Amino acid sequence: MAGILRNKVIAITGASQGIGRATALACARQGADLVLHHLGTEQTTSDIGALQSELRAIDQSLRHTSFSGDVVLPETAANLVAEVVGSFGRLDALINNAGICTFSAFHDVTQALLERHMSVNFTAAYMLTQAATKQMVSQGTGGSVVSIASIAAVQGSSALTHYAPTKAAILGMTVACASALGRHGIRFNSICPGTIETTMNKAHLDHNGQREVMAAKTALGRLGTPEDIAGAAVFFASDLSSYVTGQYLLVDGGASIHYE
User: Fold this and answer.
1) Distance of CA 133 to the CA centre of its chain
2) 182, 133, 173: which is closest to 153 by C-alpha?
3) Which bin fits 18, alpha (ψ -120 to 50), beta or left (φ > 0)?
4) Strand order, beta sheet including 93-96
5) How many Cβ atoms from other residues are within 10 Å of residue 7's Cβ?
6) In 3D, which of 201, 203, 173 has the Cα closest to residue 188?
7) Residue-wise pLDDT tens digits, 72-87
8) For residues 255 and 194, is the Cβ–Cβ distance under 8 A?
9) Which PANTHER family match (predicted)?
C-alpha cells in the first residue's frame, strides 16, 4: 500500500477505542505496520479483534499485531518494545495515547486519584518513551514520539485539577526529550485535543447539556472526533514533519481562541 507511512513501524498505546483506534486506522490507511497495545481486559481484547478485522478489510497486505499489558506495570514498556522488534525488526514511531480522565471538584480529589492519573497519564508514557527511544537510538535511523496531551495542559479546567498537571507534564517531557535526543534524529511532539467525543467522556457530555455547552465554546461550533486527532498523529509520525520537534499542536476546533 502506498502512503506517507509506508515501511514505518508504529506502536500505539490504548489502541482499542477512541483516539487510539482512529489513529490506528489512519496510520494503516497510510501504509504503516502496527503494534496495537491494549489493556488486556475481555472488552479491550474484543475491541482489538474487531479493529484488526477492520484493518484487514482495508488491505489484506497490512501487517499488524496486538500486545496487551497495563502501562503502569514496570515491565510493560520493555515488553512492548520487545514485541515490536520481534514482530517487525525495528520501531519507527511511538504514539503515547493510553490515558484516563475522570472529573472531580478540586477539594474532592484524593491522593489516590491524583496518583492514579499521574501514573497512567505521565509516568507510563515517560517509561514507554524511554524504552522506545533506546531502541530507536540503537537502530541509528531516528524516529518519532507522538504524545497525546490535552487542551487542559494549557488552559484551566475546574473539574480537571488532577488531570491537567499530568498532561502538562507530557508537554514538559516533549520539549526536554526533544532537546536530549535530537542529535539522534528522534523527534518529540504532542497533540492537545480539545473536547473530543469518546466513550471516556460520554457520561460527562451527557450530563446537564454539557455536549451543547462545550460545542458552543468552539469556533467551529462542534465537538471533535477521534479522527480529527488521528490526522495530526499521522502528520507527526510521518516524514512530513521531519523538521518539527519539541512542539505541541492544539486540535480543539478553535476553542482556545473563541471568546464569544
Assistant:
1) 16
2) 173
3) left
4) 64-68, 33-38, 9-12, 93-96, 143-148, 186-193, 247-251
5) 9
6) 173
7) 999 999 999 999 999 9
8) yes
9) (3R)-3-HYDROXYACYL-COA DEHYDROGENASE, SHORT-CHAIN DEHYDROGENASES/REDUCTASES FAMILY MEMBER
Q: Whole-angstrom Cα distance, residue 196 to residue 218?
A: 12
Catalytic positions: 150, 163, 167
**How far apart (Å, rounded) are the C-alpha atoms in residues 73 and 142?**
27
- Provide the terminal-to-terminal Cα distance of the chain, rounded to the nearest Å: 45
Superfamily of structural domain 9-198+227-248: NAD(P)-binding Rossmann-like Domain (3.40.50.720)
Q: pLDDT tens-digit profile of 10-32?
A: 999 999 999 999 999 999 999 99
Range list of β-strands (E), the chain: 9-12, 33-38, 64-68, 93-96, 143-148, 186-193, 247-251
Cβ–Cβ under 8 Å, residues 124 and 100: no
Q: What is the DSSP string of 185-250?
A: TEEEEEEEE-SB--GGGHHHHHSTTHHHHHHHTSSSSS-B-HHHHHHHHHHHHSGGGTT--SEEEE
Global confidence as pTM = 0.95
Q: Which amino acid is at 192?
A: C
Query: Which of 121-125, 146-150, 205-209, 254-258 comes out lowest in average pLDDT?
Result: 205-209
